[in-house]
Amino acid sequence: MTREHLMIVMAGDKSVHENNIKGNRNFDVWVVYYGNDDDVARRYSETADRFWRAKGMKVELLRDIIVRDLHFRQNFDFTCYKYVFMPDDDIIFDGVDAVNAFLDACTATGADCAQPAISNNYWSHVSTQKVDQIAAHSVNWIEIMMPAYRSDLFQNAFIPVVHQLDFLVSGFGIEIMVQKLCETHRRRPTKNLILDSHAVVHSRPVGTNKAIHARGELEAFFIPQRQWMFGMKTLREFKSLDEAAAFVPSDYKEIFFEKAVVEEGISKYKPLIDLNIMRRSITSKFGVR
What we know:
- This protein has about 290 residues and is of the alpha/beta class.
- It has one domain: Alpha-Beta Complex (Spore Coat Polysaccharide Biosynthesis Protein SpsA, Chain A).
- Helix content is about 40%, strand content about 20%.
- It has 10 helices and 10 strands.
- Strands 1, 2, 3, 4, 5, 6, 7, 8, 9 and 10 form a 10-stranded mixed beta sheet that branches.
- The longest helix has 16 residues, at about 60-75.
């Protein structure tokens, strides 16, 4: 079955995604279960349009199933959907209608990339927090926690980056490379929106999965635009979704960081960039000599 949009979830035993998909949906649901419980697997498979069991972290699983199997072997065309949405399994919407409304808002605003705002305090970047009394705000890039990409950008930017950066399994830093390729595909700055009118709850504190974060911090140093990660920034605020829809990004200067900001970030993290420390870390974490 092909509905208007697609949601892909990497789900563990404690995934909350089931609450988000009960009822009439304007999106298909694909679930990759990475746990060990056969009963949980059976339950997830019964509510998904497509279902897989596999082991790995988010981007690792996306690479194995979405890129290598569906994109390359099966030649699947993701542009049969309008948006491809990839929330983590700890994101809580207020039921399926809220997910439908978020994806409808992506379409209505013409977002290239979007995500819901976070209404509680479990966030990684302050710009992802819900801002009261506005409908949306634009940012310079969208976080891997729950990105929704226009399907052509998912197919022509996200998939190529996941394929190219095949050392990444956590996804830390991948957003920056995807952002750059999205700009190339669109031939202009991308319209990245955080939708405050469609906020969600992030149900687990950031850093709960220590293994992912430890691996991710190391992986991110191999991303050329790593310095961007020192600051997602808000570019515009919109009082209504109509105002957001009318916005056309055109100034590349807004999406790049001032040299002073980059230098400040590099100086702050200089001990971590020391090559000797990196070499020891890579040897211990990756087994590379």
